[in-house]
Write a structure and sequence with these properties.
The complex is a heterodimer of chains A (391) and B (65). Chain A is α/β, with parallel strands linked by helices. In chain A, strand 21 and strand 22 form a beta hairpin. In chain A, helix 1 packs parallel to helix 8. The radius of gyration of chain A is 22 Å and the shape is globular. The termini of chain A are far apart. Chain B has a single domain, classed as 2-Layer Sandwich (Alpha-Beta Plaits). In chain B, the strands form two sheets. In chain B, strands 1-4 form a two-stranded antiparallel ribbon. In chain B, a hairpin with a 6-residue loop joins strand 2 and strand 3. Chain B is globular, with a radius of gyration of 10 Å. The chains are: A alpha/beta (391), B alpha+beta (65). Chains A and B meet through helix 1, helix 8 and helix 9 of A and helix 1 and helix 2 of B.
Chain lengths: 391, 65
């Protein structure tokens, strides 16, 4: 059984079939839609460039060919580890021999009785798109990657956009101060108002209230302040949860139970640390890895040791990053020029190259950095001139 | 079997090239995927299925015919 019918859950289900499992395979998802792709929600769907018909991850025929017991619009509500069964919102109980938990995350929200958008599901994206008219005042709370992408699209649609961010430099905790400043500058260059160091305390009828009492007026508010793993349904089950479902390096959370995608926190041996990755590529890779390990003999299982990858499209910039950038000790620009928004930055954690982020560079060239990260390259070998442009 | 690549959907992640280097490449300038083998041999089909599964844009299909 697979709980969660988005990218990770679908990849797990497909991999189980490809690996030869031909028994009953139940795939449950809380949304009514067949598995669809989320990255375009804040890009082509929000902009109106694409219709929703382009979003399904698989054609109906390909999905049908998997022979699934597909239960959409039905959330998993409880887990019985002892009897090996999952309870569903419709009152039914699905027994399993093996389980993959891929229930994803949901957006964090803010207090207040005003109406605010979030952006996680197709329905969220369509509701916001419907409201984004030229001249409309949009306040985006949170200048992370999602907030930045949505701000860029709203600007292109003619909205008057204000981005509110509590940190002094958006994304600095993830990509470093210098790179964060470069990405922020793009907002200012396009006439999007960016206010940093401001904390929003509530959403009101006419906008958002800041910690100092100021009301920032808005016609529409988008809250993009991160997300929370969907683990509440596992409470009391005995499964170890914390910031996500806690797994070992095989993505196993308990005997016969694996987790994958945004909800899974696992030990990545390549970086020697536990991580929970909310990237589209990780969802598929981890869904596949979890499925393979679930079916494998105990000594044939393989640790899940990927180099994480994400991309982001903002204005005319394409951002790509490989590796694990959080908690880095040093950033060095190794190619191009920050000011031109065309560069590669390398990240050091400890003695090793652990990440690389590129803006406006040919993706094929950037891929070489992935190999260097996967190989655990020592920092001086990866970045001979290291130390000259420390951030 | 025939490979279908939905070029406008491609996000240039290069995942297909890593999974099936004999079947896919990327354009030098923008990284968009290129199909090298529309009808790959039997021995490459597992790689292609892997590429279908890891493509973050669901832009690849393997179809009969």
């Amino acid at each position: 059984m697979v709980a969660g019918a988005s990218a990770a859950g679908l990849a797990a289900a497909e991999t189980l079939r490809r690996a030869g499992y031909d028994g009953t395979l139940t795939l449950v998802g809380d949304e009514p839609h067949a598995p669809y792709d989320r990255p375009p929600l804040s890009k082509q769907i929000l902009s109106g460039e694409w219709t929703t018909g382009r979003l399904p991850l698989r054609l109906r025929a390909d999905l049908d060919a998997l022979g699934l017991d597909l239960r959409l619009g039905t959330a998993a509500t409880g887990l019985d580890l002892t009897d090996r069964a999952v309870c569903l919102a419709d009152g039914s109980r699905v027994p399993y021999d093996g389980l993959i938990v891929a229930t994803g995350v949901r957006p964090r929200r803010l207090p207040g009785d005003g109406r605010a958008h979030v952006l996680r599901t197709l329905d969220d994206a369509l509701a916001l798109r419907e409201r984004l008219k030229p001249g409309c005042r949009l306040v985006v709370v949170g200048a992370g990657f999602l907030g930045a992408e949505a701000a860029a699209v709203a600007w292109r649609l003619g909205a008057r956009v204000t981005l509110l961010e509590p940190a002094p430099v958006p994304l600095a905790h993830a990509v470093g101060t210098e790179v964060g400043q470069v990405l922020s500058q793009a907002h200012l260059d396009h006439g999007v108002e960016l206010r940093t160091g401001v904390t929003v305390t509530e959403v009101t009828g006419g906008g958002v209230r800041l910690a100092d009492g100021e009301l920032v007026e808005a016609d529409e508010v988008l809250v993009a302040v991160g997300s929370l793993p969907n683990i509440e349904w596992l409470a009391g089950s005995g499964l170890r949860v914390g910031d996500g479902v806690l797994c070992d390096e095989y993505c196993e959370a308990a005997p016969g139970v694996y987790a994958a995608g945004d909800v899974a926190r696992w030990d990545n041996p390549l970086f020697g640390t536990s991580m929970r990755i909310e990237h589209r590529t990780n969802a598929a890779e981890q869904g596949m890895a979890a499925a393979r390990n679930l079916l494998a003999a105990p000594d044939a299982r393989r640790p899940f040791a990927p180099v994480p990858y994400f991309w982001s499209d903002q204005y005319d910039m394409k951002v790509q990053a490989y590796g694990f950038l959080r908690g880095h000790d040093e950033v060095a620009v190794v190619d191009g020029d920050l000011a031109e928004r065309r560069f590669v930055a390398a990240y050091r954690t400890g003695e090793r190259l652990t990440g690389a982020l590129a803006v406006g560079m040919p993706p094929k060239a950037v891929r070489a950095w992935r190999q260097a990260i996967a190989g655990g390259t020592a920092w001086p070998d990866a970045v001979p001139a290291a130390g000259t442009e420390a951030a | 079997m025939r490979v279908e690549l939905d070029v406008p959907k491609c996000v240039a992640s290069g995942q297909c090239v890593m999974a099936a280097p004999d079947v896919f490449d990327q354009r030098d300038d923008d990284g968009v995927a290129i199909l090298l083998e529309e009808r790959p041999g039997e021995e490459l089909l597992d790689d292609v299925r892997e590429a279908v599964a890891v493509c973050p844009a669901a832009a690849i299909r393997l179809v009969e015919g």
